[in-house]
């Protein structure tokens, strides 16, 4: 099994791949996140990476930003991606960091924070017709964390209610369903 750091970086790489394929006409497309189009969702992802960067650097947790998305969302994503990668490279695997959930070891922080680039990367890919496959290992680890939270995710208002899945569903299908997303058909 890979480390939380590896899984987190793979999720960021996947978002990079999706962003690289977004065409100018697609920025206004609807996403599976009802309040955000492609531009706004990528802005949310970039802001989330700025929040993770702050925690990795020992800065107090910062609130998310609201307001219009950056006029060049792809560039904003690349900047945020570079900053979080640099901050992550400067932190040891045994670091304990301040987070909104209290002090957490780096692996716990990353295994919690990965839900954003993992699921929103899928949301972006779904919106623009890109590949919607999730890293199987990261999906499995994230699924365990989401299951442990139970109904708490839906109660935040940031996730839709869980959807049912079949007995033979993959980790990706179960994770998507638990976060209120309908898997994309073949």
Automatic annotation (TrEMBL):
Domain of life (superkingdom): Bacteria
Mycothiol-dependent maleylpyruvate isomerase metal-binding domain sequence ranges: 10-125
SUPFAM superfamilies reported for this sequence: DinB/YfiT-like putative metalloenzymes (SSF109854)
Stored InterPro entries: CHP03086 (IPR017520), DinB/YfiT-like (IPR034660), Maleyloyr_isom (IPR017517), MDMPI_metal-binding (IPR024344)
Protein name: TIGR03086 family metal-binding protein
Organism name: Geodermatophilus maliterrae
């Amino acid at each position: 099994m890979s480390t939380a750091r590896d899984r987190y970086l793979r999720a960021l790489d996947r978002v990079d791949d999706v962003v690289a394929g977004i065409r100018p006409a697609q920025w206004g497309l609807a996403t599976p996140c009802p309040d955000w189009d492609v531009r706004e969702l990528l802005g949310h992802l970039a802001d989330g990476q700025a929040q993770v960067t702050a925690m990795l650097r020992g800065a107090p947790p910062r609130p998310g930003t609201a307001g219009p998305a950056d006029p060049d969302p792809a560039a904003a994503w690349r900047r945020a991606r570079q900053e979080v990668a640099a901050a992550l490279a400067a932190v040891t695997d045994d670091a304990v960091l301040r987070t909104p959930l209290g002090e957490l070891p780096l692996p716990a922080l990353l295994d919690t924070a990965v839900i954003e680039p993992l699921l929103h990367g899928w949301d972006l890919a779904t919106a623009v017709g890109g590949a919607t496959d999730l890293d199987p290992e990261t999906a499995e680890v994230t699924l365990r964390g989401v299951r442990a939270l139970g109904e708490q995710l839906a109660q935040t208002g940031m996730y839709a209610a869980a959807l049912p899945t079949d007995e033979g569903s993959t980790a990706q299908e179960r994770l998507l369903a638990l976060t209120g997303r309908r898997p994309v058909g073949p």
